[in-house]
Design goal:
five-stranded antiparallel beta sheet; three-stranded mixed beta sheet; 1 helix
Length: 175
């Protein structure tokens, strides 16, 4: 997404939401197990999750109503005071929204990161809002009643707006 906004055209073109979750062991000892847990918004389709990259080998599970979990066992992640460069890790994944997500919906997302048996560290929250595509022109027909079609150009998703209510039956043909 760009500036937190995604369009219906983006998803029709096969684009996805991509999340990068970074973590660092800022404790005072080696972390043996790190768990990253992300509970998805109801508007995200968990079956479309693809992990694109991770800093280390992991086990992935999907459970409940869209609870994603990456478990790094025997990670031996050093603390940042011992080895700052090696104290970092990450996961990058992509996902599609549900087809039923209405325009204007904002998807909020964050993750919980567990280092061994400690309380979770909660990541910052991201927001992505679904908007209609914005073209650089609109088609305006000022004949009977007036019609606007936008955005123009588009990739098959557009709005037809009648400037006044239709009386009787009408038909719109698109070529």
């Amino acid at each position: 997404s760009q500036n937190g906004y995604v369009t219906t055209e983006d998803f029709l073109a096969g684009d996805t939401l991509t999340y990068l979750i970074r973590f660092q062991n800022t404790g005072n000892d080696t972390a043996f197990t790190v768990i990253v847990r992300d509970t998805l918004s109801q508007w995200l389709d968990p079956v479309t999750v693809v992990t694109e990259a991770a800093s280390n080998a992991y086990q992935f599970t999907l459970s409940g109503h869209g609870v994603l979990e990456w478990r790094f066992n025997n990670l031996l992640l050093p603390d940042s005071t011992t080895n700052e460069a090696a104290s970092h890790g990450f996961i990058k994944y992509r996902i599609m929204p549900r087809d039923t997500m209405p325009v204007g919906t904002t998807i909020l997302n964050n993750a919980d990161i567990y280092f061994d048996f400690n309380a979770p560290v909660i990541t910052n929250e991201t927001a992505s809002t679904l908007t209609l595509p914005v073209g650089n022109k609109e088609i305006v027909y000022k004949g009977i009643g007036g019609i606007r079609v936008f955005p123009n150009p588009n990739k098959g998703v557009f709005t037809i707006q009648f400037n006044q209510p239709m009386k009787g039956n009408g038909m719109v043909s698109i070529y």
